[in-house]
Amino acid sequence: MERNAANFTLSPPAAICPTLLCDRSVPTEITADVSLPDYLPEIKRLLRVTATPYHESRFLSANAAAFDGRADLLICYAGGDGGLYSTRLSRDFTVNLPIDPELMAAGIDPVADTRVESVAARATAPRKINLRLRLRTRIRAWGEEDLTPAVEGAPLHTERLIKRGRTVILHRADDQPMDVAEDIPLADVEGEVRLVSADGAVLVSEAIADSDAVNCRGELVLTLLTCADSAEGQGSPERRVCRIPFSRSIPLSGARSGMQARAWGSCCDLSVTVEDDRLLCDAAIRLVAEAVEETEIATVADLFAPGGKVENAVYRDVEIERNLLCGNYAVPVSGKISAAGAGLTSAAGIEDIIGTAQLDEMNFEGGRLTLSGTCRFSLIRREEGEYGAVEVTLPWQKTLECAEAPTAREIELSVVRADARREGEGEGAQLAVEAEICAALRMSRGESRRVLSRALYRPAEGRRGAAVTVCYPEEGESLWSVARRYGVSLSSLAAMNDLRADENCDLSASLGGRRFILLAE
After folding, report:
1. Are the CB atoms for 1 and 157 separated by under 8 Å?
2. 46, 85 contact by CB (below 8 A)
3. Model pLDDT for residues 330-355, shown as the tens digit of each residue
4. Are the C-beta atoms of residues 289 and 207 closer than 8 Å to each other?
């Protein structure tokens, strides 16, 4: 409880609440008919298609936001000559979202995150592919809302019921592309080396907030398939996993040392060429960083003025978000399933594996938060010279220390490495899978708080002289409600009855179990 002058101005930023002003989901569908390059053989069987979307630029107008992006697609297929091949292509897309002109005029800063909902392909001719890619873009913008109540006709001194707490301010930056290059030697290879496919994933192992920056460390994990062809025919694919370390300081205004931070990224513009006895790899990494700032907030739950009445009071509920955890975590995944159940016969060999991960549920108990989800793996197998594709799933789980149960979550998951092997023979043969997930998490808890929005003050008429009144509180009443009902000073009421006028004066326990209260009018 506090007294303050008639304008009710709280010390900034105490009454300023960070607010999510815009949160929209926009679908995008990309369809295309593409032809294979002339140097690649015809398609016998499509095996899999993967897509990596990212944003390249943003345009803001007086009433809209537009995000231009690109989706990199990798198509793997079995060729008519019995070999394994892939082709890489890109498709541009634009996401437009109308936004209230008043919000744009207030200087909001919209951000966008795009995910793949589905991707499908079919061969319509020996050298033609029909593609259908569904994307979903979430566009959000945060702003500040002043929760100071507007009270018309208020006297100089008022009694206010102040509720204090902590909330979060989210700082975010989408970094410029970072170029990465690596030469991978090819040792003890006989025949002409041919690149079959190349895929890249970004592992951010560390994100630390600093002065106006987030410092990131991690690895670009490249999975490369090559074949050594000779005059006798095509060789068997050889799989290589190359981990290229990187460090990056992402400029982020408002970030400070000690803040919790997270970062995630994607690999784009990947190019791999074979030159003599080396693989020349060039790629770009696009990183996104967030830092969470905790700040004090104080809101007015109610007010009155001794000697008058507060009328036409309007209250509303606001959501105050508190940060629980924010950071990057490694999630190991391993498991075994029946080889027969996975569609692998004793003659089938595993040539490649990639994976995706999703979060299915969260459980909180005793200060521990358990995240559970599913990894879906796509395998390319080879049996009697024929290539095929199978899919398997494995569960994953991660347990973290957490003070409370989250009510909101933001999570970016990326399977940065996956390996598969056959164990055993015959009916008891199993498929053993190991993988590594990079998880960038932000968990928070929202608290609904009732605040006074506006009211009208009217002075009391015909006030009596000083007198002592005995009040018999009703069930559920509090020190605050009694003072408000009789229009007396909260501090003097508390002093007269040897009670405390603190932040909990609106609780029934504030009356200390008294059957009657003395007050001076």
Report:
1. no
2. no
3. 999 999 999 988 888 888 889 999 99
4. yes
Asked whether the beta carbons of 44 and 36 are under 8 A apart, the reply is no
Number of helices (H), then strands (E), in the chain: 3, 23
What average pLDDT score do residues 481-507 get? 86
Beta strands in 402-429, from DSSP E residues, in sequence order: 408-423
Prediction pTM value = 0.87
The structure tokens 């999630």 sit at: 331
Distance of CA 30 to the CA centre of its chain: 24
Q: How many CA atoms lie within 13 A of 77 on its CB side?
A: 22
So what's the pLDDT on residue 6?
31
Burial class of residue 27 (count of CB atoms within 10 Å of its CB; 0-12, 13-18, 19+):
exposed
Q: What is the pLDDT of residues 50-70, one digit of tens each?
A: 999 999 999 999 999 999 999
| 152: amino acid identity, one letter | E
The yes-or-no verdict on residue 97 having pLDDT over 80 is yes
In terms of Cα–Cα distance, which of 306, 291, 350, 8 is closest to 147? 8
Residue 170: how many CB atoms within 10 A of its CB?
Answer: 20
82 near 51, Cβ under 8 Å? Answer: no
Largest separation between any pair of C-alpha atoms in the chain: 113
Q: Find residue 387's DSSP bridge partners.
A: 382
- Taking 3-state DSSP, the helix, strand and coil percentages for the chain, each rounded to the nearest 5, stand at 5, 70, 25
Question: How many CB atoms sit inside 10 A of residue 45's CB?
Answer: 13
Query: Among candidates 409, 261, 402, which has minimal Cα distance to 328?
Result: 261
Could you tell me whether strands 430-459 and 150-152 are parallel, antiparallel, or unpaired per DSSP bridges?
Answer: parallel
Number of CB atoms found within 10 A of residue 33's CB: 10
Helix, strand or coil, per DSSP, at residue 493: helix
Tokens describing residue 397: 């789980």
